[in-house]
């Protein structure tokens, strides 16, 4: 074997980092954070070690979903610019390896979460993986422009799983956290789609921008933002809310609505002229928006532990 062939072979071999990339670490960070908040704000205290183990297995379950998603979407990942560097399109990991990796992590995470905490949370994690991989990835993503709306439920389940770890069930508070992420997802991803339309069009993914156009997408961003706002603020009046959360929610939603109105009022000529600056700003702010809400819930729980909780 020549030196050049050897170097090329070495370059194409999977490294530890390639398997980490299969887990979609950026998405996993959202899963871990919201699940952690759901666990901490629940009324039943959990031993720190049990809590750590639970979050670890929830994270592995989220990573397993990412690996299985990359396995199934390998064909369109090779087409889309923002996904061509992923391990499978880049030739670092084979589709078969990604499938085996994802299935193994799925089984381990669900079984171990059930054994470490309770059966309900283990089954809930299994259902979440199934929903993301089968319902969203294999069906909705390529079948309907409502893919993000319905499929967004998968990303909204983690705080409910965290709550279930502590309580063994579901409550109005965990549903409120679910709805917060669920209703946030469409404006977040549609704003991304506004400046990534060509990717989805070339991959024949029926994103709303592709099937109904950008003007319709802008309108839907505003509609979902207006639906989200009262739910987000209303969570402040549940047992997990409080003045700090309420103030955070009011400010964040006022800014989010302002951004959605700006997007709705723009034409494609204006957007192309500034290279979708407003849409990109809204997309990145949406990340801050979600983090701020869950961080405020966490802060309210901390205040209640030192006797400063209000309701």
In the CATH hierarchy, what is the superfamily of the largest domain? Answer: UbiA prenyltransferase
The residue fraction in helices comes out at over 70%
Total helices: the number is 17
**Number of discrete domains:** 2
Task: Give Rg in angstroms.
Answer: 21 Å
Structure classification:
mainly alpha
**Beta-strand residue percentage:** under 5%
| CATH domain fold name of the largest domain | Tetracycline Repressor, domain 2
- Which CATH architecture of the largest domain would you pick? Orthogonal Bundle
- Classified by CATH, the class of the largest domain is Mainly Alpha
Report low-confidence residues grouped into runs of 5 or more. 2-10
Net shape:
flat
Report the major sheet.
none
Multimeric organization: single chain
Protein name: Protoheme IX farnesyltransferase
GO molecular function: protoheme IX farnesyltransferase activity
Membrane topology: Multi-pass membrane protein
Subunit structure: Interacts with CtaA.
């Amino acid at each position: 074997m020549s030196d050049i062939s050897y170097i090329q072979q070495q370059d194409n071999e999977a490294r530890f980092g390639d398997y980490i990339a299969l887990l979609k670490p950026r998405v996993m960070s959202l899963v871990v954070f919201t699940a952690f908040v759901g666990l901490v704000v629940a009324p039943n205290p959990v031993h720190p070690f049990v809590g750590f183990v639970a979050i670890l297995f929830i994270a592995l379950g989220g990573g397993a979903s990412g690996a299985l998603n990359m396995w199934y979407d390998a064909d369109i990942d090779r087409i889309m610019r923002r996904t061509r560097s992923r391990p499978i399109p880049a030739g670092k990991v084979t589709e078969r390896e990604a499938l085996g990796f994802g299935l193994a992590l799925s089984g381990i995470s669900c079984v171990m979460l059930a054994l470490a905490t309770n059966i309900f949370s283990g089954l809930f994690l299994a259902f979440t993986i199934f929903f993301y991989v089968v319902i969203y990835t294999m069906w909705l993503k390529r079948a309907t422009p409502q893919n993000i709306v319905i499929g967004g439920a998968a990303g909204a389940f983690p705080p409910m799983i965290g709550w279930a770890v502590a309580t063994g069930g579901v409550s109005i508070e965990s549903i409120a956290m679910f709805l917060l992420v669920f209703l946030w997802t469409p404006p977040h991803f549609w704003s991304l789609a506004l400046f990534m339309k060509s990717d989805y069009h070339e991959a024949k993914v029926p994103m709303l921008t592709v099937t109904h156009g950008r003007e319709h997408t802008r309108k839907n961003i505003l509609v979902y933002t207006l639906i989200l706002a009262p739910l987000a603020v209303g969570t402040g009046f549940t047992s997990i809310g409080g003045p700090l959360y309420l103030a955070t929610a009011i400010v964040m939603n006022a800014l989010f609505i302002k951004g959605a109105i700006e997007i709705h009022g723009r034409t494609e000529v204006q957007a192309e002229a500034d290279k979708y600056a407003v849409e990109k700003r809204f997309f990145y702010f949406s990340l801050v928006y979600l983090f701020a809400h869950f961080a405020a819930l966490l802060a309210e729980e901390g205040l209640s532990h030192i006797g400063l909780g209000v309701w």
